[in-house]
Amino acid sequence: MFLRQTFRYSSIRRLNSTLRGPVIGINFGFTNSSVAILEERKAKVLKNDEGSFTTPSVVSFTKNGGGGGECLVGAPALRQAVLNSQNTVFNIKRLIGRKFDDKEVQDFIKEFPNKIVKSPNGDDVLIEIQGKLYSPQQITSFILIKLKEMTENYLNKKVGDAIITVPNYFDYSQKQALKQAGKFANLRILRFVPDSVAAAFGYGLDTYGESNKIIAVCNLNGGSFEYSVLELKNYVYEIVSNKYDTCLSGEAFNNFIVNYFVSEFKRENGIDLNKDSIAIQRLREAAEKAKCKLSNSTQTEIILPNIIADTNGELKHFQITLTRSKFEQLTSELTKRIVETCQQRKEEIGQVLLVGGMTRMPKIRNIVEEVFKKEIFTSQLEEGAVAIGAVYLGVFFGDINYFDNRRTSKNKIIKMASQKMFIGERNIDYGNEKECAKLLRGPVIGINFGFTNSSVAILEERKAKVLKNDEGSFTTPSVVSFTKNGGGGGECLVGAPALRQAVLNSQNTVFNVKRLIGRKFDDKEVQDFIKQFPNKIVKSPNGDDVLIEIQGKLYSPQQITSFILIKLKEMTENYLNKKVGDAIITVPNYFDYSQKQALKLAGELAGMKILRFVPDSVAAAFGYGLDRYWRGAVCNLNGGSFEFSVLKLRYFDYEIDSNKYDTCLSGEAFNNVIVNYFVYEFKRENGIDLNMDSIAKQRLREAAEKAKCELSNSTQTEIILPNIIADTNGELKHFQIILTRSKFEQLTLNLTQRFVEICQQTKEKIKPEVEQPSLDNEIVSQNREEDLPSAGFDRVLLVGGMTRIPMASQKMFIGERNRDEEDAAKLFWEAIAIYVKEYYSSLHIDIRSRNAIKGLGYFALRHTDRGIPHGHSAIYLSDDIPKRGACWVFEGEHERLCKAAFNFFKNFLFINKKKVWSKLKPYVLGKKLVTEEKEDLINKDFQKLKFKRISTRKRNGMGKYKLKKYFLFKAN
Predict the structure, then answer these.
(1) Are 227 and 210 in contact (CB under 8 A)?
(2) Less packed terminus of the chain by CB within 10 Å, N or C?
(3) Cα angle 905-907-908, degrees, rounded to a multiple of 5
(4) Do residues 595 and 634 lie in contact, with contact meaning Cβ atoms separated by under 8 Å?
């Protein structure tokens, strides 16, 4: 039996426990590791400095300093692998706790790039790096220290205890070696949890279906494949069967791809890449990326420029297209072994759980479904599920100080009248019999056509949903490319496949077409852009429009844009399985009539009708919930421009008070500064100007973009580009540099100063309006030294990927930040849904119910009282909208419910409090559960409540009154 009966899983979820800690849960994996904590009784997987939930289980020592070279862990160590493979350690989990003469160790030595020797005092394994010997425990401790430091930085306190997951087949010596590694990292390992059990807890399988059942866990990760059968009885797991194969892993799949790449390159060029360590490492990285992409798309293209030089010194490029069917054919032997392993006790299995990154492969999911004839259980956060299970189990094993399992007596609880939903029974809207709820119809899609990336969203079950593309990403690069073969009839690629063409096919690849759409050839912006544009741009013969020449054929910006819109349209149609004809597109505030008309023409070429253009700042304000405040500022710094807009909410609609923009201030401008720095440093060290080589320049651009993103989360990053160029003697040169955040901020100081200037100009322009606080501007943020003064703004919103850069966000700080942790695209598209609904029905959906819709599934409806154009609100259960009219809805226990109701109704003078109380009373008090004394006290409290007027009334021209402020009760 795995768990003690006294610590059943039900206690953590159903009882309030006083948790002692912190105890962390660590998933120490073959290829990646992760760490989780308990925060407010919920497990949370922590992000590392790179902003990722997983940290590569890789340790590397820099070349400088001999044996005292700097020790790198995680992504920085992984980047070292190409040029420093002999000092980089992978898959240390395969060696820990094993003997030198073990078959697994001897097999691993053949593929291990480091020198592995036998311990002088026994038969243990030692790894020689830069003349120094390290045990697997020491290497493992470096990874544990990294995870421990991540947790301590997040919690701002020391961490000493941990639960670590291990494969079911780990023996005593391997666990003891892991425990010793924990000691080296100053961690006390409280318990080792089998991966399969931790995964079952992390995915919450014990909360679904029957309490007694048989569960199969198929764990295919980077280092092994495990098939475990678990029996769940009364929330207690028992491992009844386990089979494993350490030679069947994600690494094995990679090796098949690499061997295929090597054979194809040798067939075409007569060169064996196995003899070049740098080339083979680049192929390994490309194989891993290709494998991941083929989980979402049917094919992917791999392009590795300057992979090797031939005997004449000529540089060779590696370029190949790998289809999913070819990948499945190459690895068919491995998938057959999975089927053979999963045959054990398959008739008894009630649920099937897939764990590990390799289980995202469609072929593997299909064969597992065929074996068990059951639906596969999986989760969105697969990377952290095992760590989550570990930290939950840490609560059971000694982390609970006290929990109260006594029954609560009836006189200590207040039960609501309905346990399913807290909702009234009225069939019509309060105060307006003619207004009633209607169903939403569709589809109308929302498109964010950006300078560098685009995305598309739909309304699904009354909620905005951003769709993923074939690569599994929410954003699609706004890039179009034409393959070289076939002349003007070359294949047209859009998105990530087109972006990959840029290195070797830049002259046929179009970026930033949004800069050209709707503009004239003689415009200053177009002439400035031509200097950086790799394609040939010419003037239209019949006018002054812009045309782009590609492979002898002329394309207008509208045509190029239509290819991107077609891609987004096809994504939506494939998801909905129906045709899409209408769309709403966001545009910058400064777009003029000709630019909008050009976009409308692009939509027609794509077979879509553009219903409306929405300003970026307004859509973003709605999406982020800024519409709850009377005056807001939106700082939008994206890949193509910078906009600073001041918005004012007047009668539930936004007006743009002021707008300043700079099309030369963008993410692209930041990239150019980094690229120029790279070129300068390489020329200073090697005497070669990389600007003269188009392939090298494009590789630097891609590296600059990645470095910029990484510096948003970490203080420094290392850029390594092997074989960047060959010198006059034919010797290949590598580009390697460390870029710190401070250096990056120093290089881009002029750009950040321009942010502040634009914001200051806008603030000065509206200064007379905001100097005196008013009811429209009740919140006045405190000014901060060295930051832009914030007087007059209730909220400031940062939009665009570039605002993630710490320096940019600090300089643009104006009061309280309003950034959500989720992807900006998701929030952005919730705004589009509000506009889309205008074309569905006349349903009055209050835009300020965004948080309620997203978190609790509630709509807030606006109700109109006779003679009052702008009345009060009520919360509405979204799933119940088609069934009934509006009604009062509150959520919470008795005392909180009463308080919320009182605070809500005191703001409305025209409401008859006796009528409201008579309607609300049954749902506030419950039925036959409140003593008469308690009920009398509540009645007295309500009668004492004074309805003070806190909103001013403003007379309009028709002699009626309007409520200037709009109050919305937000469910707790």
Answers:
(1) no
(2) N
(3) 75
(4) no
SS3 percent helix, strand, coil of the chain, rounded to 5, is: 40, 25, 35
Read off the pTM: 0.68
Least Cα distance to 647 among 656, 639, 638 occurs for 656
Report the 10 Å Cβ neighbour count for 703: 22
CB-based burial of residue 764 (10 Å sphere; 0-12 exposed, 13-18 middle, 19+ buried)? Answer: exposed
**HSE-up of 546 (CA within 13 Å, CB side)?**
29
Q: Do domains 5-207+378-397 and 690-748 have the same CATH topology?
A: no
CATH code assigned to 444-621: 3.30.420.40
Candidates 3.10.129.10, 3.40.50.300, 3.90.640.10, 1.10.10.1100; CATH matching 690-748: 3.90.640.10
Residue 947 in contact with residue 906, Cβ under 8 Å? yes
- The reported pLDDT for the residue numbered 787 is 34
* Per-residue pLDDT at 821: 35
> Where are any strands of DSSP class E within 40-120?
42-45, 55-56, 59-61, 71-73, 88-89, 115-118
Q: Are 141 and 152 in contact (CB under 8 A)?
A: no
Q: How far is the C-alpha of 146 from the C-alpha of 34, rounded, in Å?
A: 10
pLDDT of residue 400: 32
Q: Please say whether the dihedral angle defined by the alpha carbons of residues 428, 431, 434 and 436, taken in this order, is positive or negative.
A: negative
- The interaxial angle of helices 616-623 and 824-836, nearest 10 deg, is 100
Supply the DSSP symbol for 396.
Answer: I
DSSP class of 753: H
Under 8 Å between Cβ of 798 and 662: no
The candidate with the shortest Cα–Cα distance to 790, out of 808, 807, 773, is: 773
- Amino acid residing at 916: V
Is 801 in a helix, a strand, or coil? helix
C-alpha to C-alpha distance for 958 and 592, rounded to whole angstroms: 37
Quick check: 511 and 505 in contact, CB under 8 A?
no
How far apart (Å, rounded) are the C-alpha atoms in residues 46 and 35?
6
CB of 513 closer than 8 Å to CB of 557:
yes
Alpha helices in 270-331 (DSSP H): 277-293, 324-330
Residue ranges of the chain with per-residue pLDDT less than 70: 1-21, 40-41, 64-68, 206-211, 234-235, 379-442, 461-462, 485-490, 623-630, 649-654, 763, 765-794, 808-972
Per-residue CA distances from 59 to 51, 55, 281 (Å): 19, 11, 16
What the block records as the tokens of 849 is 């119910």
Instruction: Say what the pLDDT of residue 833 is.
Output: 44
Domain ranges of the chain: 5-207+378-397, 444-621, 622-666+751-821, 690-748, 846-963
pLDDT at res. 318: 92
Beta-strand relationship, 453-460 and 444-449: antiparallel
Place of tokens 């169903």: 439
Three-state secondary structure call for residue 545: strand
CATH number for the region 622-666+751-821 comes to 3.30.420.40
d(CA 355, CA 196): 8
* Strands annotated E in 182-234: 188-194, 213-220, 225-233
Fold held by 5-207+378-397 = Nucleotidyltransferase; domain 5 (3.30.420)
Predicted local distance difference test score (pLDDT) of residue 957: 37
Closest CA to 221 of 47, 392, 54: 54
Q: What are phi and psi of 19, to 5 degrees?
A: -90, 135
The terminus-to-terminus CA distance of the chain in angstroms comes to 41
Q: Say how far residue 871 (Cα) sits from the centre of its chain.
A: 39
DSSP notation for 16-41:
-EEE---EEEEEE-SSEEEEEEEETT
CA distances from 419 to 356, 886, 889 (A): 38, 19, 13
Helix, strand or coil for residue 273? helix
Which of 447, 671, 459, 676 minimizes the C-alpha distance to 566? 447
**What is the rounded CA–CA span in Å between residue 216 and residue 200?**
9
